[in-house]
């Protein structure tokens, strides 16, 4: 009974991933041009008076934009109905000191996977600093509740497996918006199963505790972005495009090494 939820959650994650990729393929096929021959072009020109408006050129980094926008609207509806109200209550009710402790605790757990990916990217200094952060905060920061390492000037170097793939030359591929999970690329989506596998919370034996920890982390993260999303909704003329461009620029900046940067720029 203790592992039922964990066993059920892993197939659900894979199902969501497979469903998203299937939808992306279907969308691409549905929108593919059918005929670009000269004769066909001439025929269309002759009937231009009866034809509709010319198709809008697609963004090369976002060929699935119509589908992605639909997922973006779905995610926003879920956020408005569930996540945002819960995160707002959490921010208003839980004292700031306790919220900082929760954030520090999950950041310290995340440094385990950060360290592994910095090693895979052959980043010696980043690996050493991440290893030091993990030990300092675990042993002197009450299990990570206090961020002693930052007070000592030891920087955090976040890294995931999608970033590692980019470092070793795997191109980012098209931009995709995943249901509930948010912005991504084909490369980062393919890396998600390993990122989930590298999450220490996924190894909690007590399924109830694992679900509670995952839920608390989601709420805490959403609470930290409440002000940012409010500014985005007020300032951005097209929130979807803003989120897409900001995500892609941030991912490019996170890819370390010359090869990774070149591939992402292409």
Would you give an account of this structure?
The protein is mainly alpha-helical and 266 residues long. It has one domain (4-30, 54-265). The protein contains twelve helices and two strands; from the N terminus they run H-H-H-H-H-H-H-E-E-H-H-H-H-H. It has helices at residues 4-30, 38-46, 65-93, 96-120, 124-140, 148-151, 161-167, 186-197, 207-224, 226-235, 239-254, 258-265; strands at residues 175-178, 182-185. Strands 1-2 form a two-stranded antiparallel sheet. Helix 4 crosses helix 9 (207-224) and helix 7 (161-167) packs across helix 8. The chain is globular. The relative contact order is 0.13. Mean pLDDT is 81; it is low at 1-52 and 257-266.
Please give the alpha-carbon distance between the first and last residues.
49 Å
Class by SSE composition: mainly alpha
Q: Output the number of helix runs.
A: 12
Beta-strand residue percentage: under 5%
Unreliable spans = 1-52, 257-266
Q: What is the string of SSEs from the N terminus onward?
A: HHHHHHHEEHHHHH
Most strands sheet: 2 strands, antiparallel
Give the count of structural domains.
1
The level of helicity is 55-70%
Please provide the count of β strands: 2
Whole-number radius of gyration?
A: 22 Å
Rough shape?
A: globular
Which whole number gives the mean pLDDT? 81
As laid out across the biggest beta sheet, the strand order is 1-2
């Amino acid at each position: 009974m203790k592992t039922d939820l964990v066993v059920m959650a892993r197939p659900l994650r894979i199902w969501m991933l497979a469903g998203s990729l299937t939808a992306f393929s279907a969308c691409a096929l549905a929108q593919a041009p059918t005929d670009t021959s000269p004769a066909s072009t001439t025929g269309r020109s002759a009937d231009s008076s009866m034809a509709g408006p010319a198709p809008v050129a697609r963004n090369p980094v976002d060929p699935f934009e119509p589908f992605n926008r639909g997922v973006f609207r779905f995610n926003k509806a879920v956020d408005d109905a569930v996540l945002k109200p819960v995160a707002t209550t959490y921010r208003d009710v839980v004292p700031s000191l306790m919220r900082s402790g929760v954030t520090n605790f999950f950041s310290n757990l995340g440094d385990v996977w950060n360290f592994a990916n910095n090693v895979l990217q052959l980043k010696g200094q980043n690996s050493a600093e991440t290893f030091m952060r993990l030990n300092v905060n675990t042993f002197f920061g009450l299990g990570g509740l206090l961020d002693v390492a930052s007070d000592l000037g030891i920087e955090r170097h976040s890294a995931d497996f999608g970033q590692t793939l980019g470092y070793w030359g795997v191109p980012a591929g098209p931009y995709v918006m995943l249901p509930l999970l948010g912005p991504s690329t084909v490369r980062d989506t393919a890396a998600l199963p390993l990122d989930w596998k590298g999450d220490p919370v996924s190894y909690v034996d007590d399924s109830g505790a694992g679900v509670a920890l995952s839920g608390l982390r989601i709420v805490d993260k959403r609470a930290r972005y409440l002000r940012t999303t409010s500014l985005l909704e007020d300032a951005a003329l097209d929130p979807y495009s803003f989120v897409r461009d900001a995500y892609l620029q941030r991912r490019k900046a996170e890819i370390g090494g010359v090869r990774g940067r070149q591939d992402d720029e292409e």
